User: Fold these one by one.
Assistant:
Number 1:
Amino acid sequence: MKTTINTPSKTYDIIIDKLPKLNFDRKVAVITNHKIAGLHINYLTNNLSAKELHIITLPDGEEYKNWQNIEFILDRLFDAKFDRNSLLIAFGGGVVGDMTGFAASIFLRGVDFIQIPTTLLAMVDSSVGGKTGINNKYGKNLIGSFYQPNAVYIDTHFLSTLPKREFAAGMAEIIKMAVMFDKDFFEKIKNNSISLEEMIKRAVELKADVVNQDEKEKGIRSVLNYGHTFGHVIENLTNYKTFLHGEAVAIGMVMANELSKILGYLSENEAEEIKQVLKKNNLPIDFKIENIEEFYNHFFLDKKTSNNKIKFIIPEKIGKYKIIDDIDKNIILKVLKKFEK
Amino acid sequence: MKTTINTPSKTYDIIIDKLPKLNFDRKVAVITNHKIAGLHINYLTNNLSAKELHIITLPDGEEYKNWQNIEFILDRLFDAKFDRNSLLIAFGGGVVGDMTGFAASIFLRGVDFIQIPTTLLAMVDSSVGGKTGINNKYGKNLIGSFYQPNAVYIDTHFLSTLPKREFAAGMAEIIKMAVMFDKDFFEKIKNNSISLEEMIKRAVELKADVVNQDEKEKGIRSVLNYGHTFGHVIENLTNYKTFLHGEAVAIGMVMANELSKILGYLSENEAEEIKQVLKKNNLPIDFKIENIEEFYNHFFLDKKTSNNKIKFIIPEKIGKYKIIDDIDKNIILKVLKKFEK
């Protein structure tokens, strides 16, 4: 199965299948982390040959997604005399993918790179669409670039070792896509009548469709932030320690649904249906807010909050999104009150 | 006078004229250095208004073109709560332009920026075409991006304070463009029958034409490296201390011309003509090589040397370039021998 991404800057395929034999007549660096390397590096290298193959291993964890580790990657490439014709391969989850993409975008002003995601979240979300980045003391993904890979290879083999919570976090993004764009897809997830590969493929197709329309997130791409506007605040308030990203997004979707209900769009039934699908997929659906004013103020720390307008993405109904901005503070507080401790 | 750049990633104008009044209804940061700020900040701010105006001042010099100063710029932007709608203005020479462009390309995955170059070199070369970058311990401009500005404003007012050597260094790039692409332009420079503005405009037009064909330097854009392949080695061997970039390029052009002569293209007369134009414009035309083997080996440190093939750009005749690669080492040594101490 494959899907094509077609942006102004690049056209490339996302291949969902057993990893094919990859042979490169150029220098290749696989960038991964210790954990993934320990579990899966043989599976990869058995399928990979290159003129020269280097493995660059990073520590595992979001806290290492910083400039120091980008410099570490770049220095290894310079040491190995990589040139503009060389290739990087991101082999891991979102952290490895975002960092490899960023390194590829700035090494000698840009070299080719390939994504081989190993987590469900990276497969359906971060590996698709060319967002790269690192964190700094001001926040997450605040430094980075839009830089598309040359190909994405999605092989569900790697999911066999993925912890259950991380699998669920990936499901959150899949459910998000279904609620935003495709009722039929949502029904299939709800009824368990779709295979994992088919589910990944549909999620990727839907994301590709959005990215093809708006590579640089000037408009429609922001729709992918359903659940994220609330979710980012939850992650922030809990210092990114309590919830995985996908878990915070799941709660954020429940909150966005409440907003939609108050505004008269989503029905009580539909909101409940979404909640149950999230729950069935081992995702949290509730969060107790200590202080709703504080929660509200956190919206303005988001890099997507331009000109002090908060943009909310809500389902008008299952399968149809709606973008809301310039919304009255009191209405938001009313939503938050439902989650108050 | 204006010229338009039209690349796959952006279309924008290069305006060669007295700086117009610029009014922005968004946050603006002017990035400059202490020297330029001292000389010209009033001239700029008298023509500039913004919703919020910040001036970020860097130390003056190539040695500050590094990640530490990019981080300094980014931190100031985060402190001032700049968002995706904010604008950066590069106000200075090539160092300021390259750093501002790089910072703009990675701040929140890319914000708008404008170039207001203050040196002749930046006006005709570095501000046009979207190359951004910084140096590191491995070399110059090894980290960076291709990222186009939204506009370039070229006002020769700023050249009134430019040191004579730096003016000459800018002339080297102008003469380079003439020799590569436009015999008539070369004749005008030789005969002193063209105004400074017209000269800048023609050089920018010629560069724009190349960039429009090959934004990411996959092919034809490498033609702009006439004089640079030899020049980079000269800069390297003298630790970037003896010559300004344009001066090294001037010597590099003389060397490339010798190569062209040996290969049977450029006539002795034409080579001499170019030499005299460089000389008349206060540029060096000779360099004594200590060790020609060492000089030769330095070609392979250049980031443009891919797959161990050195690419030389030479004039086939004045006004017509030729790209040469896969050239026998002995021929290059023969050229270098002419410059041996």
Number 2:
Amino acid sequence: MTVPAAGLPARVRIHEVGARDGLQNEKATVPTEVKAEFIHRLAAAGLTTVEATSFVHPRWVPQLADAEELLPRLGDLGPAVALPVLVPNERGLDRALALGATRIAVFGSATETFAARNLNRTVAESLAMFEPVVERAKQDKVHVRGYLSMCFGDPWEGPVPVAQVVRVAKALLDLGCDELSLGDTIGVATPGHVQALLSALGEEGVGADRIGVHFHDTYGQALANTLAALQHGVTTVDASAGGLGGCPYAKSATGNLATEDLVWMLHGLGIETGVDLAALTATSVWMAEQLGRPSPSRTVRALSHKE
Amino acid sequence: MTVPAAGLPARVRIHEVGARDGLQNEKATVPTEVKAEFIHRLAAAGLTTVEATSFVHPRWVPQLADAEELLPRLGDLGPAVALPVLVPNERGLDRALALGATRIAVFGSATETFAARNLNRTVAESLAMFEPVVERAKQDKVHVRGYLSMCFGDPWEGPVPVAQVVRVAKALLDLGCDELSLGDTIGVATPGHVQALLSALGEEGVGADRIGVHFHDTYGQALANTLAALQHGVTTVDASAGGLGGCPYAKSATGNLATEDLVWMLHGLGIETGVDLAALTATSVWMAEQLGRPSPSRTVRALSHKE
């Protein structure tokens, strides 16, 4: 049943991260042809932004080492489907541009500890590394998304001060990023914290139109946090088909918000997404079979048990 | 990290349903001494309302056939912990009163189909059955909660009109119920629907102070719906320790909202509950061992993996 609520947007753009953020965090390496079929099925289900892969060095992310083989298989999707790719540095940018990428993303950290562990750099050094990447991308009219991880809590530093996140977020925008994706990488955020960060960004001139939210369901909070962000005017929400990327039974659970759970809420609220939930669910059931484990998405489970 | 949000209550009373609604829907029948220890541990973790058992005929709910043996084991909890019990009819009321129950609950349906299937009566006939129960309870100064199931969707009837729910809700209050618990029994509701129902009740003079909400996580919506209810002024929320009562792997999943997931959100919002989350999580981990299956609560999984 569709019952709108006051003060929410009419339409939300879902930034689908399952093929990149999801598969990057799965133990199994998925064959290139399966990835290509996955992305084709996601697009056929109505998702218009499907993050496709990463040009991080294969040593760090062997699951996505086939980026050069994968992207050419997606050319038939045409311009209606945006296929951003993650690019860590200028070498990655070269590889992405050589394949005709028109949207890239850089991956920053709001905390020093995660920057050191994930990027082997300070936050300032990582921003310096992104600077020529973003500059050259903009020269080529390539759209740039700036991921900002650990925006709420950090496993080593604990709660992350809002002012610290705002500072790094503004630095990413100052580099030339077209949009930000604010990540609750360990899933600890609650709705007041989300609103406080969005308010602080707004006070610094960073409006909701340049912000995407990226919540993890590690503590079950992702949809409540999404509702809080929607109430604040955010219209771009990251999610992962079937909840890919966080095996709920493993200690390493990252717990991406499942796209199906998000779509159930958005459609229930009368918010347009363009997504065909049945087709998306069927895609996630198929992908779960490829991975040999059930989807952690509650909506996928509920709908597929009814089939 | 605690970050309050505007417009939310300072304190929420959690109505813990794990020992009754949870265990009633588990396949395994739990020994009486385990139930007693469970309820003692829930109370020790700070829960002040713990629904203890049901006086439904054992033929219908064999899992709770030991109500007469269980309640005397809880006498040492004293008046600080409310121990409501479910009572279907006058025979059940007699049994509950004989054991000194001071709080009871009746279980109604907003839809005719579920009333027919669950109560073998029309909605009107079920209200007539409750009438002497509530009347006699009130004479004995017993607090009466009225459960109203299928308030949003019904597996046979589909979406349930708000006006229909309001009509039955008012009838339960007219019988003398002190509070209502509005149930999303199949977990399909989304936040706009929640707010629409609460608004419609408010227009009929039923304020949030007489309403509890009872959400199921079948589609992952329970916490977002809870946030919407809190924003509407509701301060009583039903939840089940560890998410008991809905095995997420079974077709019959009911998917009660896990108390731990709720507490994580409430405490993150700076809302007092009186609950010690670590003690509650330890209780749910222990109960999961008794049942031989992992808790479906994401917070229980996240916190217990860190231990």
